[in-house]
Write a structure and sequence with these properties.
- The chain is an alpha+beta fold.
- Among the domains are: 111 residues, Immunoglobulin-like (Sandwich); 120 residues.
- Helices cover 22% and strands 37% of the residues.
- The strands form 16 sheets. It has a 5-stranded antiparallel sheet, with no helix packed on it. It has a 4-stranded antiparallel sheet with strand order 2-29-28-27.
- Helix 6 packs antiparallel against helix 8, helix 6 packs across helix 11 and helix 10 crosses helix 13.
Length: 974
Amino acid sequence: MTKFKIRFLVVLLFSLLHTGNAQIKKTGVPFITNYSPKSYKAASENWDVLQDSKGMMFFANHFGILQFDGVRWNIVTQPENKSMVRSLAIDAKDKIYVGAQGDFGYAVQLPNGQYKYTSLVKLLPTANRNFGDVLHTVIRNKEVVFFSKEGLFVYKDNKIKVIRPASTFDEFFEVNKAIYVSDNVKGLLKFNGNVLEPLPNSKQFIGLKIKKIFETKNGLVVLTQKDGLFVYKNNQLKNFVTEADYLLKQNQISTGALLSDGYFGIGTRQSGLVVLDSEGKLIQHINKQMGLQHDYVTNLKTDKEGNLWVTLKEGISLIQISSPLSKILDASNSETKIYCSQIYENKLYIATDNGLFWLDWNAYKNGKRENVHFQHISGMSENVWNIGIFGGSLLAFEKNGIFEIKGTSTKLLAKIDGAWQGVIVPNRPDLLLVGGYTGLYLLKKINGSWVYQNKIKGFEESSRVMVTDNDAVWIAHGYKGIFKIKLNKNFDAVWSTEFYNRENGFPSSLFLNTFQIDDQILFGTTKGVYKRDKKSNKMIPDAVFAKYLGMDSHIRLLKEDNQNNIWYVSGENTGKISRKKTGHFDVEELPFRKLRYLYIPGFENIQTTATGDVFFGTQEGLIHYNNTKGKSYQTKYKSIIAEVKCISPKDSLLFSSRYDVLPTNSEGDDTLFPVLAYSNNALHFSFASLYYDEADATKYEYWLEGFEPKWSDWSLQTEKEYTNLPENSYVFHVRAKNIYDVVSEEAVFRFEISPPWYRTSWAYLLYILLFCGLLYAIVRYQKNLAEREKAQLILNQEKELLRNRAELNEQKLALEQQNTVIMRENLEATITLKNVKVASNTVNLIHLNEILLSIKELISEIKKEKEAAISFSLLTKINRIIDHELQGDQHWNEFEEIFNQLHDNFMQRLKNSFPELTPRDMRLCAYLRMNFNTKEIAPLLGISVRGVEDTRYRIRKKLQLSSDANITEFILNF
């Protein structure tokens, strides 16, 4: 960095030349923030604007007074007759005086945030209450003047003085605490105390339709609606010729404001805002094509930061005229994404993703913008990555190759597969090395023109970031590392290649860049700036940049200009490093905070010129910077708590400026310290900061004292909710940090959560009484319990005695039951034995009967034999004895007795039910009861099987059974 010493005097001289008061930039269009009626949710028309001591903005809107805190819009109050608000003024105590349609009064803010409007019309005599729009409201000394075309209303000491015009007033002006009124009959009048006095030659003002008057060292500058500007000096009115005369006369002046350095801000009805200097030169013309949302300007006011608020027929715009940054726009507002820019032969060229464009830079810079547009250069319609001046020629590096730009035309030098950029080979100004998509290419200057030579052999990597020194070519690859390449003597091939990545000392192999600063090769990494240590051939942090840029940011760009400055993009920040006389460096970042998040990632570009112009290529177009614009970045501002509401059990507001949401409190209350029931222990806080420059980027931190131990982290959050807060006294703190890292004054809201009823003092007294009662009850209970235990003991003993007796009875009963079981078992055994005996007798009987039948049959056969030796009479006698045995009842009687015992007196029940049954029938039924079949029954009855069947048939009839009934089942179930 040896060049710093050489360039120091140049920088010092340059800085001295540009010190002084802030000026409105002439180059480019200031940053504009537009607020549409959809965003502020009120009427489209706005007529006036003011700022209170805290920094809150207020606007005169058709629906009432519109408030803006940087985050939220609210209608805070309305006139009593609900008419539109036309004018506003504010005193040192933030009392807002309001001029409306047919009404005027004032509004004050109550402790709960509400604004209370009080009409002053009731102080007027009835005859003076008929008037139209109160177009202007001004505070002068201890009086307030309300102006309508029907009269002046001077309010002082709760009284109103009315000054009527001879015919009608036309317009009203406050000029350095002096008040002027234009009268359609008398001309221009000056208000002195209680009367209106005509100026000398005042009638020369009649019919001019004056819209604004400025006091300057050259006299009064008078702005008229259609006739341009005039100067009133030495009692004479003369034309004030400006560079914008045609523009102002054609588009009609509507309002005006005196800006810093004596500049005139002039609003028009049809062409937006015009800014002139005190000499009448055009500084700015900002209309709808340049970013203003409407061309009809109704009023202009500057705030504490030097920003210009423009109220429009439709919407509100904030123009940051105090910023040293501006956008290079033309009437067509064309190309946005800018990869590179270059001024060459008084033309501004921009490389975009849609080709290359040019603009007449001298004409644009001198304010002649109406017919100045970015024009497309034919032949280049795709991504142009870079443009640069090499050997006096302007070259462009595009997706399709390398081009030379001559004025507004192009010439293809080499059609290659994509070109990124070019660098002059050290000590060979006639050779140009071009980095391409797939390697390196060589161009040579021959007879004043660049001619393509060859592709460099031996290297095929993408070479988008490339610098050279006397030793080699350094190429940064986005996700691989750094290549150091040396070419052979013929410059047609790579002689040697060295590669550096994380293994060689870099904190990472990703997102590496290489830059040349003061003839030294430096490297941008994700952890600061590195350089190569020649002894160890390792990459080490650079001590100077580590001190000023740190080691935690991603260095995306370093670029040296010819004014001893080093421009950088580090992380999200853009800055400038310049050398001090002491040898140290100044680091300046604040003016460039607006550039955060605007760069095209990976294609950050800064272009500087010898005249101090600096261009930043961004996603939102080309941005211009010139350090002649002095802006204060350390302005103090306030945070506010916009709204506090309980969200449980239902939303209920505690503090808010929103119109008609809270009951009005007494104006005597100077604090708001709500004590909330425990059921309302969930609160929602909304907050904002009264700083309007890049308000969306403002960060906040908050702290609920009494609940949280410390402040929260910074965030973009503008709301915070707390639920289930325990009973306690709390203080909610909030503060903001703007894009310039200035921390606001904090805002606080104090409140208290009452304990639930069961944790109040009365509840605790009740708990003590209940505790005493409980102790008494416990003692009483213990005593009763002892008595009950004693009685229970006696009872238990009696129960034990009874239980023992019961057990003895149970044992006795068990013995009886056991004896019963034994007797039943014996009885069953006896029955079983008898069953066996019956069965045995029956079997014996069957057997005997079968033998007897067999003998009887044999005897019958013998009787048939005539030759038998035994006499017939003897056989007859044997046969009669057998019959007697077969028909004997002895065995049957025994059988019947046992059978009745076993079968529940079956025979007797059957006989009683069916008396017509014969003894033979009864015997057959008994055998059926025993489930004998026909063959078994036949010998028992001494008849044949056929006889058994016949008997069964007769019995069926006697039993009156149907033909399909089973006689056996009937007998078994009887």
